[in-house]
């Protein structure tokens, strides 16, 4: 004999059918597009889905399905587009043909700064003769299709002194605060001088000056003529810190300088022992497998990737792989000092890398040493702007 439930048939409570815990487990595994629709079920469903604890849980589950942000130009070449693309989709079918998305189309010149917890940060610049250079920020969440207005106006009338700002994007978990770091540096009469500012999303929409670098992130060299270029190397975000490569003149070594976004203080870390054996082509730091990584072209014959197992501890550097460039069947462009590869993804024996000179990406298998190029009909900026992305419910405050 069936027992009739005493619960109301049309209960608006999110636990009317399932237990609260089970419902959260189910919802956290759904896509943002589907979850957003459930907000309309009732006020209690909306409150559950909007709760920061649920947003964090969904983010954690969603991070198991990694994406890359692809910046590309359509065939007419007028506007740059930015949108996420599934890594698993790339691995199953090595092609990255993307379609137009007006929501992310940048109709004015803009630069994609970075991605953090599902939020994308963009920089827009206006530069007219006899007027200060104006920079402002914009944030968007592609999954919820929300974006901010222009924020953080930063005017520069003294470009001749320290040059233009570079920007990095990060997050402070303890205060749930997203921050953008603007920094610039220039060598003046043999000495490096720098300026660092911080913008907090959801704050008073202004920039705050903080202490300058103890050692300055060093300028890259032009790969063809080995001359300084105006752009400093990009900082990478990891667990509430922004990290850059820098030259410490006091010990004559390349180091990592790290900014703690919460305390707004700096630390320095040493690179793997033996880095002095590396050729003068660009080394790079990145975040892969949730750890700080360091890569470089060794002697123009091998691409090497190290991982810092314990953040800040030099002895924890562990070599993850070394790829002989002859297996990649690449050639060195004239006047080049190296291949300039970037590692975009690592999982077991599977590696996705980008080649700066050829502007393409490829999948490499470390075990059988096979390489497969990722095909695309679009002009994708693989090397400079393909960054980690994870779908999330994080709101733009």
UniProtKB/TrEMBL annotation:
Membrane-spanning ranges: none
One Pfam family per UniProt: FBA_1
Coiled coil segments of this chain: none
SMART domains hit by this protein: FBOX (SM00256)
SUPFAM superfamilies (alphabetical): F-box domain (SSF81383)
InterPro entries (UniProt xref): F-box-assoc_dom_typ1 (IPR006527), F-box-assoc_interact_dom (IPR017451), F-box-like_dom_sf (IPR036047), F-box_dom (IPR001810), SCF_F-box_component (IPR050796)
Every F-box domain range: 18-58
PANTHER family in the cross-refs: BNACNNG10540D PROTEIN, F-BOX PROTEIN CPR30-LIKE
Name the UniProt record assigns to this protein: F-box domain-containing protein
